[in-house]
Amino acid sequence: MLALLAALAGGFAAYAHTRAEDLRDVPAARNAALADTARTSEVKGTVGQAVDAVFSYDHTDPGRTEKAADRYLTGRAVGQHREMLAQVRAQGERQKLVLSTTVTQSAVEVLDGDRARVLVFADQSNTSTAKGGSTGQAAAMFAVDAVRRGGSWRIADIDTFNR
Question: How far, CA to CA in Å, does 29 sit from each of 36, 50, 70, 112?
Fold first, then answer.
């Protein structure tokens, strides 16, 4: 009888170990955004600064937006950003445009090694300082994929959910 109990206990231990390994292997268990608060905060902070900088534009200093893009964007995001701001640049000087973007909330959805996906909520204000100009406000929601390169996080892809 004791041998039977020992065999059952051994079998249960082997089963429990296998199930525990399976649970550790699910993607959520590898998602550092759920456990590494310091790294998650670092990603949120850098992506927030990046979004504020690359999606703001001042007709008196258009080079500032370009410098921000050079600093914070990489890969596919470079072309996406260029396309998104093309109309602003084209009308910027004539309408004396000032576009300000401020991240109001963000959340790191996935953080896996040197890759992250961040959901971003931002307020945008655009002002035309030309005669008869106007001011408008809008909210924006999108996601960015970020990669850590050379010791800093850079936006590699911008997902505006337009599918």
Answer: 12, 28, 34, 10
pTM of the model: 0.79
DSSP string for residues in the chain: -HHHHHHHHHHHHHHHHHHHHHHHTSHHHH-GGGT-HHHHHHHHHHHHHHHHHHT-EETT-HHHHHHHHHHHB-THHHHHHHHHTHHHHHHHHHHTEEEEEEEEEEEEEEEETTEEEEEEEEEEEEEE-STT--EEEEEEEEEEEEEEETTEEEEEEEE----
Higher pLDDT, 16 or 49: 49
Q: Considering the domain delimited by 37-159, tell me its CATH architecture.
A: Roll (3.10)
